Amino acid sequence: MASATGMPDARSSTQGRGEDEPLLGRAGDASQQDDQGLQYNSVIGTAVIAQVGIWILTATIWASVLVSPLMLFSAHPLLNSAGILLTTQAILLLQPTHTPKQKKQGTNIHATLNITSILALIAALVVIEYNKISHGGAHFESPHAILGLITYILFFLQAIVGIAQYYTPSLFGSTENAKSIYKYHRMSGYVILIVSFATIAAATQTGFNKNVLHMQLWAIVVAAIITLAGVLPRIKKQKLGL
Asked: Residue 132: which residues within 8 A CB-CB, separation 6 or more?
């Protein structure tokens, strides 16, 4: 587009470039406005799609558990799904930030949500381990159990590195060194979210689910795909070093 002077519009020449450019769409499609609060980040752009998906996923799990006979084990899927819900919210909230002030505020809340998520996941792990030990059950034999262990480890490592690189950058030698691995932290975060969904899908193939909870694989897969369809297009290319 040309301006009134006949020269190209500067805004047009930068459209689609820089930190405001999402993976899909135009620059600014998933960017927090200067006068907007962080709470709006969870619904702008394709975030609404992600919200629909993650809430359907969470509701599917909770409904399956709550309509079944409640026992100690019931806390395991409830806590795990709550943790994944919180992590998804943490991602959606931070993605649109682009000014230093927004990034600082967003990172603090992102960290708080993820720490809460980790606590929920730890509690879920304690529940399932206690349940296995008390009943003399086998450990880490099913695909779900193996994927679950991998998911827990990835979550814990992600949290440790994320907190260290932002709040104690001296551990990496300097602030610049810490910032240089931000993009890897972001990349791994999306990978871990996908692995989490795979772990939940694998849970539908366990004997306990088939005999008691009756969660349907197709419902979990559809909800996960909807969530990712809302999350992935909001990825900022420059934040991944692309």
From this structure: 138, 139
Q: What is the pLDDT of residue 24?
A: 58
CA angle 140, 146, 152 (to 5 degrees): 105
Best CA proximity match to 227, nearest among 196, 203, 204: 196
Three-state SS string across the chain, please?
A: CECCCCCECHHHHHCCCCCCCECCCCCCCCCCCCCCCHHHHHCCCCHHHHHHHHHHHHHHHHHHHHCCCCCHHHHHHHHHHHHHHHHHHHHHHHCCCCCHHHHHHHHHHHHHHHHHHHHHHHHHHHHHHHHHHHHCCCCCCCHHHHHHHHHHHHHHHHHHHHHHHHHCHHHHCCHHHHHCCHHHHHHHHHHHHHHHHHHHHHHCCCHHHHHHHCCCHHHHHHHHHHHHHHHHHHCECHHHCC
Closest C-alpha to 155, from 190, 201, 118 = 118
pLDDT value for 179: 92
Query: What pTM was computed for the model?
Result: 0.88
Q: Which amino acid is it at 16?
A: G
The pLDDT value recorded for residue 137 is: 77
Residue 12 has pLDDT above 50, yes or no: no
Using alpha carbons, select from 4, 38, 64 the residue that is nearest to residue 223.
Answer: 64
